[in-house]
Structure formats: C-alpha cells, structure tokens
Amino acid sequence: MSRMLGALAAILLSLAALPAQAAVVITFWSHELGNSFPHAFFTLRGIPDAGGPPVDLNYGFTPKAVSPAILFGPVAGRIDIAKPGYMNGSDAQFAVTLSDAQYADIRRLVTEWDDKTGDGTYHMNTRNCVHFTQEAARRAGLASVDAFPALMKKPRSFLKALAAANDGRVTMIGRHGKEYLASLPPIVPTPSAPALAPAAVPAPVN
Fold first, then answer.
1. What is the dihedral of CA 12, 47, 189, 50, to 10 degrees?
2. What is the distance between the alpha carbons of residues 27 and 182, in angstroms, rounded to a whole number?
3. Tens-place pLDDT, residues 46-90
4. Contact at 8 Å (CB) between 90 and 177?
C-alpha cells in the first residue's frame, strides 16, 4: 500500500510541475543524437483562452537536404514536423504558457519561415533551427533571447542558458522526451467556448 501511495504521489507531483492546459503552452526541445535535423524545435499544446479545438503541434526548421553545402552558405530550408520517434529521443527543456496573441504570433512565425508561404532560406550561421526557436522564444515574451550568440549552433546549451536567464518566467522540465510525453494529461476541450478561425500553417511533412 505504501508503495502504491508513493507512486501516486510521484505522478501527482509530475503533473503539478507542468503548465496548466487552460491555455496553449509552448515547450522548447533539443535533440543531440546523430545528424538528424532539426536539433531544436518546439511544441504547442493546449486550448486557446478564447476557445476552439485542442492544439497539439510541433515545428522545427531544417535544411531540405543535409549535405556539405550547408557549411558554406544559404541553402533551401523548410518547416519540419517531428515524428513521435524523434520526439521520444529528444529532450523537453522548458515550457511557457502563451496568451492567445502570443500563440497567434508564433503561428505566424511558422508561415514566415515556411518555404511555401514565406522565406525558407536556411543558413547555418544566421538562420538555423536554433534561430527559429530563438524567434519563437522572443514572441513568447522571454527576455535575453539575443544574449547568447556563441550558442546559436548548440541547441541544448542555448535553451538551458535561455531558461536560466528567464528564471521565474518559465516552467523547467529537463526530461527525456518519451518520459515527458507519457506524463502529459489529455487535452480536454471546452465545448461551450467559441471556436477560433484556424491560422494558415503548413501541412505536416510525411
């Protein structure tokens, strides 16, 4: 019985550490294994304060082709939708609860960087996956997003430094993706809330 109570307490503490799902939460992730891209990305999860369907999305930015060309200048890039296996092997670093205005602004960011609806140029030094998450953090209201120029090719180090610079504004997670995803509660829609008009975003990449 005591073991069961201990397990229940651990689950409750884990859930209490997560941001409330009454709004959309952006979570920043890093991926450190191999040559897979993107190495930094974010998820959007929850329900807008104004109502509407549940949100469960993720976005990263990556070159269309991983080749030596990415080391020498700009190449074609695209918005990337991480598959479950990739997320399981990544790390959730920290989360921020968004206002509806911030959520809409981050959805606009996705269209602005998508090669079909905006500028999809990828540049290792000035417009990579870390820069993409940097801009998302800016639109999420975080401070000191430009304070770490030496870390713009180091996703995990950048996100950890950014979280430390925004202590008290972010919810620290620091958990492996598979464990973190398994701990998330279901997103419960609010039937009485008015629906928001969907934002124009790129379709998932198969």
1. 130
2. 15
3. 999 999 999 999 999 999 998 899 889 999 999 999 999 999 999
4. yes
Model confidence over 98-117: pLDDT tens digits?
999 999 999 999 999 999 99
Read off φ and ψ for residue 184, nearest 5 degrees.
-75, 135
Q: What distance in Å separates the CA atoms of residue 54 and residue 33, rounded to the nearest whole number?
A: 31
- 111-152: per-residue pLDDT in tens? 999 999 999 999 999 999 999 999 999 999 999 999 999 999
pTM of the predicted structure, to 2 decimals: 0.82
Contact residues for 78 (Cβ-Cβ < 8 A; gap 6+):
61, 62, 63, 64, 114, 115, 120, 205
DSSP string, the chain: -HHHHHHHHHHHHHHHTSPPTTS-EEEEEE--STT-S-SEEEEEEE--TT--S-EEEEEEEEESS-SGGGGTS-EEEEEE---HHHHHTSEEEEEEEPPHHHHHHHHHHHHHHSTTTS--EEBTTTBSHHHHHHHHHHHTT-S-TTS-GGGTT-HHHHHHHHHHHTTTTSEEEEEEHHHHHHHPPP----TTSPPPPPP--PPPP-
